[in-house]
Structure formats: structure tokens, C-alpha cells
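Suppose a colleague, Dr. K., hands you the sequence of a protein chain of 176 amino acids and asks what its three-dimensional shape might be. Before reaching for any lab equipment, you can write down a predicted structure in C-alpha cell form. Begin with the sequence itself:
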Amino acid sequence: MSLVDLTFEAAEWLRSTSLPALADSISASAFSQMLQSSFWIIPSLQSLHILGIAALFGSSTLINLRVLGLYARDASPARIVARFGPWIFWGFIGLLVTGLLLVIAEPARELVNPVFWFKMILIVIALLLSTALNRRILAMPPQGRTAAATRMHAILLLLLWCLIIFAGRWIGYAPI
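The predicted structure, expressed as C-alpha cells, is then:
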């Protein structure tokens, strides 16, 4: 079974759940109607969502590059986490707020979309792995070689965040 077939099957399954009715109910709400009818709200939310992605991904990338020894070798890993960790936190908060508003504005596009749910699962995994990596980093000595497992963890996170960005982009093109 190809990825396209799997996506279509997942879309069919999602349509057989109560999610389409939930999407219709949300879409009929006054708040959703207000978001949908405004010329500027959805593009503005999408732009803010992209800025949140940039903050989170950029900060996570710099932390991971420090773990890999490719950035700020003279700074301790803990110092890099302290510097960029808040950007990850606030970027995520921004993504959460704008993402929820986008779901309310376009519920059918999101809630019955298998790529949306794939992205949500990946985000949960990435946040858990990021938390674990930050704990490892804070326990590391200020200088010295990073353990191979920690470097692999950083590479996995970089790839995972890239996959999340790709999934986010593909939401608009998935069969629903």
C-alpha cells in the first residue's frame, strides 16, 4: 500500500467518525463564522503561526547544533538551552494559540485531515524528545565530548521538526 493509498484510507476512516459533525458544529459557531468572514484574520493567523514555527525550529536547531558541536563550541550546552529554551516555549505557546484559532476558523480542513493528525502526533513526540534532550543537556558537563546517544537524539529532533514543518505544509493538499 502506497503512502497516497494510506492517506486516502485514513481520510475515509476520519470521515466515518464523529469528527465531521464536530467540524460542522464548530464551523457553524458565531466565532468561527466571524473568523471565516474576515478578509485578514486567517492569513494573519497563518503568518503568526509561521513566525512561531520559525522561533521554535530556529531555537531548537541551535540547541541541537550545539549538542552536535557545530555551533557555539565555546559555550556550555546548558547556557545555550538557557538562551534559546524560552524561545522554544514561547514559540510553542504562539503555535498552540494560532493553531487552535486556525482549527476553529477552518475545522473541516483540519479535523478530518489525516495529515493534520499525523502532524499532531509528531508534535507530541517532538515535545517529549525535546524535554528529554534538554534534561540530558542540563546534566552534561560544561565542556567535553557529547555522548553519541545524545548526538543521535539531537539529529532525530532536527529531522522530526523538519517532518512536522513538511506535514504542516501538506495539510492544505491532503485528501479530505
